Amino acid sequence: MRNKILSAAIGLGTALGLHAADKVTFAYEGLNYNILSEADKTCEVGRHDKNAQLSSVVIPETVEYNGTAYTVTALGDSAFYGNGYLTALKIPETVTVIKSCAISQTLRLFELRLPNSVTEVEPRGVYGNRSLYALWISTGMREINREAFNANPALTAIVIPEGIEIIHDDAFNYCSRATTLIISSTVTTISKMAFAGCSSLTNVKIPGNVQEIGNEAFSYCPKLATVTIEEASQPLKLGSDVFGHGIYTANPNNDAWCRLKTLNLNRSWTCTATDVNGLPFSKRSTLQTINIGEAVSSI
Fold first, then answer.
1. Mind listing the pLDDT tens digit for each residue in 84-131?
2. pLDDT tens sequence across 19-39
3. How far apart are CA 199 and CA 217, in angstroms?
4. Where is 10: in which H helix or E strand?
5. Among 156, 159, 97, 160, CA closest to 132
6. What structural domains does the chain harbor?
7. Helix, strand, coil percent content, the chain, rounded in steps of 5
8. Rounded Cα–Cα distance for residues 99 and 219 (Å)
């Protein structure tokens, strides 16, 4: 009898658990939503069909379901993935998270402003948008996740706002038309291949607060001609091939190699490369000017 009661209790618990895990979805004024928490009365924007003719979308701060108001706090996984009609998207200040592929592979989205309430964009959250040429990143973020904004080929400028401290691997790689890169003074770490393939960049300024730049962070940037490393008391730690693959410098047509012409060096540096070909400034046949600042104590 005891075993039967125990089995029944386990079965009931399992059933309740499955029910609790079920995602409650609903539509409100033409958009899909998923309930995140009944206790907190929060929800996220749900997934939409690629062919949904959404055009200009304004996401409200609150929506209603069965007479109850829910606050929109996230854009869910693949919310607008692959949409061919979305041209504009306004996100409310209640949203804190842009989940994976939420705004990815769209065809006609031209501008995107992330409200300063957003604290996280998950990997590939804003990825591969063919027409996205203007992007405003939230000042509420402290880290830019791996691949968060990569492969947006129409993007013309990348501006890292104050407050961002870490730019993770591949964060902006292959944003191939970006001609401007502004890195804020709060950034301490630029990780591996963070800006690799930004093939229209002509100059890069590394703020003094940056402590480390990972392997190949600016590789495949063939137009990168000027690098300025701003003053700091501590040496800058550089990974291998930070400014392109030195091993390819014998072939100036190889797009892995940035054609560095001017180096403004205002601090000492170290490098983790074990091969001379991986050093950041060696074998640069195009280098014409080297300006060494007073803060550089040794080479």
1. 999 999 999 999 999 999 999 999 999 999 999 999 999 999 999 999
2. 444 789 999 999 999 999 999
3. 12
4. helix 2-21
5. 156
6. 72-292 (3.80.10.10)
7. 10, 30, 65
8. 28
